[in-house]
TrEMBL record:
It comes from the Eukaryota. Gene3D superfamilies: von Willebrand factor, type A domain. It comes from Myotis myotis (Greater mouse-eared bat). Pfam families: VWA. Residues 67-236 form the VWFA domain. This is Vitrin. InterPro entries: ECM_Assembly_Org, VWF_A, vWFA_dom_sf. PANTHER family: COLLAGEN ALPHA, VWFA DOMAIN-CONTAINING PROTEIN.
Amino acid sequence: MEGAAEHEKPYVMEPNFASKAVCRTNGFYSISVPSWLSLHKSVQPLVKRVCDTDRLACSKTCFNSADVGFVIDGSSSVGTGHFRTVLQFVANLSREFEISDTDTRIGAVQYTYEQRLEFGFDTYSTKPDILNAIKRVGYWSGGTSTGAAINYALEQLFKESKPNKRKLMILITDGKSYDDIRIPAMAAHHKGVITYAVGIAWAAQDELDVIATHPAKDHAFFVDEFDNLYKLVPKVIQNICTEFNSQPRN
């Protein structure tokens, strides 16, 4: 009220509130009163907000409560044209989520023999920015070290994941890995990263099954051509939501 100091407000709010909430606060949890004389006018708005359970609950769904990290094969066998198709697939999946700094966040890694963080979970917080960032990813070209890419994603991308977020890795590859994928895949599973493996053309089904979280039939996907990737979007989203709905939530 009146001359309340804005800088003191954080001291009377729950610490790290925004990082714990699933929805944005949007001023819902604070009321400004111009003077003591008008304090009585805040009673009804305050009661209404306290009783508005839908907005207080900020319910989690499969669309607003994850950190989704894409691990994208940029090897030579993909080619420039097909790489754009892969990016369109990544964009189509991203569109399905509610994206903000307190809802679902998106990050991406590209790999060949080496790895590159294209953008982290904290880099962009709106859907238009995410889609533009995906569009700007440049094709790298090189070998296929999928195991090293998984390790890199765990260290450089998922280490920034929030404790209240489900960690989803969606790895997309068109070939057999030149390095070991078993130990990195086990590390991802051990760290609670739910891993979806999407294989195209020459990808090895046995490797996809190892990379994918158990059961592999729900987490590993394969298409024989890049142009068929779009068909997987509803299947991947459906499986993400089915798994989310089957898990207990706090």
